[in-house]
Amino acid sequence: MIVKPNRDRRAERHEAIRREILDAAWDAAHETSIAGLTLRDIATRVGMQQPSLYSHFTSKQAIYDAMFKQAWQIYLDDARSAADALPAEPRPRLIAMAEHYFDFAVADLPRHQLMDVNVVPNFQPSAEAYAPAMQVYDLMLEQLRGIGITRDEDADIYTALLGGLVNQQLANDPGGQRWRRLIPRVIAMFADDLGLP
């Protein structure tokens, strides 16, 4: 007779409540701002008293930490899924990579701010929360090396160009295409500088 292990229903419930708290935190961030989250608002949204949140997260910073990890994990999973469809040629590959990240970033301002802008005072992600971000960076480096971009400073320039376009779009034309339309031109200048075919 095969005996199945008992489910840990308590752990499952605890994890479900943590997910509910994170969903409430994202909802609140979309209504106010990522930096303006309050434990009171999050607790109200999940129907519990504020001190009860501490049974699931040790602090507000721990909630930010979990949100940061979740956001980068979502992008990591998405980027891995999109990797096989990237063009092989250097310039089209760079454009496709840039457009993919750009679209993800501009789709959600609070998520982008938490991931890339550092608008939350005193927030430093834990090593565990930062791990998916590092995996995204490693994936990007692998994709760049695959087309001959091997220097770290060139990767830094690429991310700075893309980050600048994202921030300009969000600040000056949210919901529009003004800076997204510039991606091929910016990538062409970058590729020309590197002498890419």
In short:
This protein is mainly alpha-helical and 197 residues long. The protein is built from eight helices and no strands.
Structure explained in plain terms:
- This protein has 197 residues and is mainly alpha-helical.
- The protein folds into two domains: 9-57, Arc Repressor Mutant, subunit A (Orthogonal Bundle); 64-194, Tetracycline Repressor, domain 2 (Orthogonal Bundle).
- 68% of the residues lie in helices and 0% in strands.
- The chain has helices at residues 9-31, 39-46, 60-83, 90-106, 109-117, 127-145, 152-172, 183-194.
- The radius of gyration is 20 Å and the shape is globular.
- It starts with 8 loop residues before the first helix and ends with a helix.
- 24% of the residues are buried.
Cα(first) to Cα(last) distance is 64 Å
Strand content: under 5%
Please report the first level of CATH classification, the CATH class of the largest domain: Mainly Alpha
State mean pLDDT (0 to 100 scale).
Answer: 93
Shape: globular
From N to C, what is the helix and strand string?
HHHHHHHH
Tell me the CATH topology of the largest domain. Answer: Tetracycline Repressor, domain 2
CATH architecture of the largest domain: Orthogonal Bundle
Q: Which parts are unreliable, with pLDDT below 50 for 5 consecutive residues or more?
A: none
Helix content class = 55-70%
- Give the CATH superfamily of the largest domain: Tetracycline Repressor, domain 2
Structural class: mainly alpha
Structurally, the number of domains stands at 2
